[in-house]
């Protein structure tokens, strides 16, 4: 049963981009729908579990964490338009792991020994090489789109890094900060839409993509319970299957075409990213 719980975020976060690929819409539609769905699950959890009171400071830090997640996710949605699921997901996963690992070392003193740092450096190198393999393309136009999408991911992934780092600054359970994080996701998405594309608020696609927000937040909730039951290391390792689900789903479910050389390189890169992410957990 514990492993089944652990598989929920792996599958949920893996099918998120596939749902987006099927529903379509603009990034504004997609991020607003994600925010709506996240808020719904956040409210349900708050009333159903009554996780307890937290201080105003913890609430605001958690809220800010969710808002920064929107920056990363918006960049991912823009890159999905340019690169497709099977190219975007390995790269964004690699960038997230590299950034969060470096922040953990520099800001929170993780990987304390020289051996830890050397093994961690090796893992990061695997992530970088894996991302390079997934970028292999036989088409000039595809290379241009990948370059543009990669630049977007490189800068917006900062949002993911801060989203992961801020909760480490507070002394509260994952369940207690879940609602303010989801509220932050909604408010961040709403602000983005109000600034960039107000029409998205009344467009049908925005409400359809709330399914993505439901999927994201249910997966995030399942990860909290999985970490409690299986331990953080095991829970996190299993969630890395999401990049496999998303990448293979993009190729076979969304029919994203790749040449034999591109497919071979993508699979090699995917394997390196998964191995590198697993190594970081055991340091």
Q: Can you give a write-up of this model?
A:
There is one protein chain. The mean pLDDT is 90. Helix 1 packs parallel to helix 11 (241-252), helix 3 runs antiparallel to helix 4 and helix 4 packs parallel to helix 6. The chain is globular, with a radius of gyration of 18 Å. The protein has 283 residues and is mainly α. The chain contains twelve helices and no strands.
Keywords:
12 helices; 82% helix; 283 residues; globular
Question: How are the SSEs placed, and which strands pair?
Answer:
Blueprint: H1 2-23, H2 27-49, H3 56-83, H4 85-108, H5 114-134, H6 140-165, H7 178-196, H8 204-208, H9 210-230, H10 232-239, H11 241-252, H12 260-281
Helix pairs in contact: 1-9, 1-10, 1-11, 2-3, 2-7, 2-9, 3-4, 3-6, 3-7, 4-5, 4-6, 4-11, 4-12, 5-12, 9-10
Q: What's this, in brief?
A:
The protein is an all-alpha fold.
- The fraction of residues in strands falls at under 5%
Give the H and E element order.
Answer: HHHHHHHHHHHH
What's the story with the biggest beta sheet?
Answer: none
Helical content class: over 70%
């Amino acid at each position: 049963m514990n492993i089944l719980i652990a598989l929920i975020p792996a599958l949920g976060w893996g099918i998120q981009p596939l749902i987006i690929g099927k529903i379509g819409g603009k990034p504004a539609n997609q991020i607003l729908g994600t925010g709506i769905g996240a808020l719904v699950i956040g409210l349900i959890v708050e009333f159903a579990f009554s996780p307890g009171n937290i201080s105003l400071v913890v609430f605001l830090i958690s809220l800010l964490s969710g808002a920064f997640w929107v920056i990363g996710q918006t960049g991912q949605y823009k890159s999905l338009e340019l690169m497709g699921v099977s190219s975007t997901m390995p790269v964004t996963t690699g960038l997230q792991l590299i950034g969060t690992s470096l922040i953990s070392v520099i800001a929170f003193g993780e990987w304390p020994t020289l051996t830890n740092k050397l093994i961690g450096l090796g893992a990061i190198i695997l992530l970088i090489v894996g991302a390079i393999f997934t970028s292999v393309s036989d088409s000039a136009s595809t290379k241009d789109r990948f370059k543009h999408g990669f630049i977007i991911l490189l800068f917006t992934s900062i949002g993911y890094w801060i989203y992961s780092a801020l909760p480490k600054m507070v002394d509260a359970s994952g369940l207690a900060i879940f609602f303010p994080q989801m509220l932050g996701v909604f408010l961040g998405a709403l602000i983005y839409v109000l600034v960039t594309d107000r029409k998205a608020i009344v467009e049908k696609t925005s409400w359809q993509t709330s399914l993505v927000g439901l999927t994201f937040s249910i997966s995030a909730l399942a990860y909290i319970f999985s970490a409690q039951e299986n331990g953080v290391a095991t829970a996190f390792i299993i969630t890395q299957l999401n990049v496999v689900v998303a990448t293979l789903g993009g190729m076979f479910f969304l029919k994203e075409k790749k040449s034999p050389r591109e497919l071979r390189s993508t699979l090699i890169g995917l394997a390196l990213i998964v191995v590198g992410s697993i190594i970081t957990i055991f340091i």
